[in-house]
Input
Amino acid sequence: MLKTSATTLRENLRSFLESSLLGLELAEPSTHAVELERLLCAALEGLDALDDGETPPLFSPARAKRRGSRPSEVTRLQLKAVAYVAVLRKMGISAEKAFSLIGDAYGRSGDAIKAWRKKLRKETLTRVRQAEWEMVAVYQTARTLFNKPSTIEGVLLRAKTDGQALKKLQSKKGH
Output
């Protein structure tokens, strides 16, 4: 199992990038391989800069309207809420009921979850669709692998955990 300290994560990422770079060097040369090699080298150089206390352009935050100190984490948890709705819909739950159940799990109203979906779709439709697809795929894969369908209660339990994480995150900085 991978450790989660920033330094260890960077070391693991560096190892992966170096292995990928080595694989490219052994592959047949192509325009795509050269471009990918440049990207991998830039990422490795960026990791080196981070280790030296510098934030290289590759890893510096994009200019965006900030929503608290951890906007990416807030967005990730909101995306998960929207994705949980997609899972419940795939399980045969009506849209209204799915929004209501996930809203309850997150300690919000169903309308709040709908508003998140609308806002997130406006900001980045691709990320919303990807989050929905990935979450549905996880639940379908679990059903296939274990020959046991996920339960609505199981989905709601995970959603409640994420809702509590969001609430804790937002209460820290007064969102």
In short: The mean pLDDT is 86.
